[in-house]
Every structure is written in C-alpha cells, then in structure tokens.
Amino acid sequence: MKHELARYRWIVIVAAAAAVLPRLLPDRYAIHLAVMIGINTIVALGLNLLMGYAGQVSLGQAAFVGVGAYASAILSANMGISPWFAMAAGVALSALIGAAVGVPLLKLRGHYLAMGTLGFGMIVHIVLVQWESLTGGTIGIMSVPPLKIGGISFDSELKMYYLVAASVIVAMALAANIINSRVGRAMRAVHGSEIAAEMSGVDTARYKLQVFVLSAAMAGYAGSLYAHHTTYVHPDSFGFHYSIYLVVMVVIGGMASIGGAIFGAGAVTLIAEHLRSFEEFSTVAFGFILVAIMVFLPAGLWRGTAEALRRLRRTAPTPGEEA
Amino acid sequence: MAADQLLQLDRATKRFGGLVAVDELCFEVQRGQIKALIGPNGAGKTTAFNLITRVYPLDGGEVRIAGAPTRGLPSHRVAALGVARTFQNVQLFGNMSVLENVMVGAHTRGTSGLLSSALRLRSMRSQERALTERALSCLDLVGLGGISRDTEALSLSFGQQRLLEIARALAAEPQLLLLDEPAAGLSSAETVRLGELVQRIRDLGITVLIVDHDMDLVMQISGEVVVLDHGVKIAEGAPRAVQRDPKVIAAYLGEEA
User: Which helix (H) or strand (E) holds B64?
Assistant: First the structure.
C-alpha cells in the first residue's frame, strides 16, 4: 500500500543524513561522540514515551541503562557468553526489573512518582557499587568484548556508529507507530485526563506499566550498546546525574516529540562533553544553558526552532494558513 | 420487568468523613428512557455519577448494571459493561486532536496491542480504519462533522468541547450514557440543540441519565425525574408531577416544608 509506505518517508532522509555524517566528522573521537548521542537518543525516546506522552516522570532512568550495561558486561566479559546473547539478556533484565518496580511505583503520582523513581535509581547505583563480587564495585568492569554477529565484529567506532544509527531509526519508527495507535492513544489519554481515560475503558494502570517497561527495555538496550562500545562500565556512569541529563534531553528536545529526542540527546551530550574542561563549574554553565533554552524555546529545541523559523519567514500572516 | 432495568441503585451510600453525600439512594433507569437527576447544588448528583462509574467506592448498598453488581470493579471495567459518561468540568485529552479524542472513546471496541501497533500489522491497520470511521460518524452525529479532525481538542469553543465529550462517549457504543451538566455554560440556542441531540441519542437505543440545572431542558426531554437534596431522594416521577411536589419546591426555594 502506497499510503502505508508514505508513513516511513522520513526514514530515507534520516538514513541518508546518518550515512553521510561520518564523512563530515573530523576524527574517531567525533564519531565516538555521535555514537554516544545515538545511544542517548534511544534512552531519551523511551523516556519521552513515558514522560512526554504518558505523563509519568522517571528520575531513575539511568538505572535501567546501568542494568543493561552491567548485564552485558558481566555476561560477556566475566562469563564469556556471546555478546549478542548478553545484550538480549540485558534488555530482558531491564524490562523485568521495570515491571517489578513499576507495579508498586506507578501507583504514585506526580512528585511522589518522581521521588519513588529517584529512590529506585539510587538503590541501583548503590547495588552496582557495593556488590563487588559481581559488579567489580568502584573499579567497574573492563575489557567488555565488542558485539559480533556472524562474521561482522562491531569493533570500530565507525561500525558501532552504523549499528547505533540503524537502532535509532528503528526505535523512532516503532515509537512513532506506537504513538499513532490504539495503545499510543490510550497512553496519551492517561496524560490528558486519567479519569476520562478510565471512563473510556482504558485500563490506566496497565498502560502506565506497559510504557514504563517499554522505556526500561529501550534504556537497557542502549546500556548494552554503551557497554560494548566503550568496553568499560563504571557505576558512576549510571548515577543520579545521568538520570537528570536524560530528563533534560527529553525536555529540551521537546516533550511528546519523536524527532526531538535526537536534538535533545545531541545538545546535552555535546554540551556536557564541552563543559568538561570547566570541571565543577560545568554544572553551573549547564544550568544556565538549560534556563536559557526553557525561557526562549519552551516547546523544546525541535519544535521551538521550527516555530521560530516559521515566524521569521512569515512577513504577513495569510488567512486560513494556521494550524 | 427486571430485564428492562439497565441501571439500579440499591441503597447506594457515600460518606466523606462526617458528611453523607449520598444516603441510601435507590432508583432505577429503564432501558431506552431519558431520566434526569436533579437537585440543588451539593445535593449529591455528581457523587451519584461517581458511584455508578466507580470513581468512588460505595460505602454501602449496591449499584447494578443490567443486573450485574459493579462492586469491586475498576472504572474501566464499568465502561466495558457499556457505561459512558461526560464530566461537569470538561475532561478532554488536551494533548490530542479532535479525532483522536473520539477514538480513545472507542478504546473498548478495539483489541490492537503494543506489538501489532509497533509493527503496524495488517489487522491493526484495518482496525484503525474502522475506528476512524466510527469516530468520524460520532463527530457527525453531535454536529462537529464540519471541524477539521486534526484540530487540537482544547482549541474548540466551550460548547464544542461539551459536544466533543459526548462524541467520545458515544464512540464506545454505550448502553447507558451519563451526562453530567451538559448544558452548563452553553448559550440558550446551544442548549436547545443539545436537547435535540440527547433525544436523537435516545432514539438510537442508548439510555440516558442526565444531571442538569437547566429545568426547561430537563423537563422537556426526560421521561422521569429523580430529585435529590442533601444526598437523599425526595421525589421521583414524571416531570410535571415532580415540579408540583411541595418537597421539591421547598428544596429549591430553601423553605421549610
């Protein structure tokens, strides 16, 4: 069906851009940053489904990334299990833990849910630090082997880049499909009015849990990619700071926006990287940049920039052109 | 005939702390009728709606829908039994379009899950087309057929928002439609059209229970009226009889009967 394929037209553009990008990047370090942006995009997409669309805040999303990363690292580096299997296990474990903590946590609303997920994130961080025999404690786990499928080993920045880019595109397509479906509408209805959703026959508790588990699984997948990409996992990579960064990616990318995830992840990853030289002042600078974005582009980078461009281009408003 | 009783409240009771908001309320709604629930502010009308739809749990008594007790059911299961409602303070999904709002109303009429949605399987797509058709016909029915389907729900006028809520409720193809003050905030012309719409809905075979303060509307369209005051039923019967009831007059005028 022609109409059905038209739905995926954007993929051609994004895929073309993704294919060209590495040629424009100066060095391996830049490609590494692009991989990190892609990994963060996948987490931000999942978190945006949860926060932007279903209206449920998570301040502990880093924990699910950590679970995926550590599961992959422990299974492949310490136990010699095939990295692909380790990755699948990491995704499954993240989803499972998401389901287990989601059932009690999602009974909470608003600030209380934020506090609950915050606590969950801290608990996972403490476990990663303290369970030395399994996680390597504060030393972490080194020499995580690269992903390998058939004859291809994803052992270079560039190969990893293409894998991550493909993952991002697939994740975006699936997320867009979910949003525009019965399931997606039910999730958004929970955000719009929980009582009206219930009275429309939507089992709000079930859909909240579903989107929570989905976001956890996406975070777990991204975490696994991270472990095999950097070959090294450390507990502080998955602490409270990273959870906040993830929320910030969603907010500045634009709540309830699929395309915004790339921009949010890109902006935060690059800003965080470039502010490193400021050391402790980096947090201050980061805060200023955030405030500026929220003041000037409250709809997020993606939609905010598009709107600003439209306003610039439109010299006189033409009637009947709005919406 | 018991089979014709779509909704039964049997000594339904709700307390908020020391206040008895609804006190041993008993009434029935027959299939195919328009019945009104009226009373002064604070009489417990919306609370009664919330008991029927199980937004609040009952503190006593029972509510039955088509003979089946609703005790212990969550609200979405009550909806699945064929009960739809609108809200006194409009509860639209502000993050969705007009069409999507109505499509959520048809949620119980679909079955697509996460996987078939993510992959857009053929079954999901044909179901999606059917849901869209249904939603569009509901928008037509309430008179919003002329509005662009992609309009944001909250950008509609207040009167249109009330109609959109009704369209959303109808999309579920309910047996029983509960309308909570649908005429509040409407102009008199809009109210007249609303009355016609409610009668058309009844003619489609949907039973209606309506709460409203607009007495002209209520008396004109309802077959029967229940009057509440301070959570207690003080009168029930044909509109004319109820209007002449001294207890009702006293409740509205605040006199001692």
Answer: strand B60-65
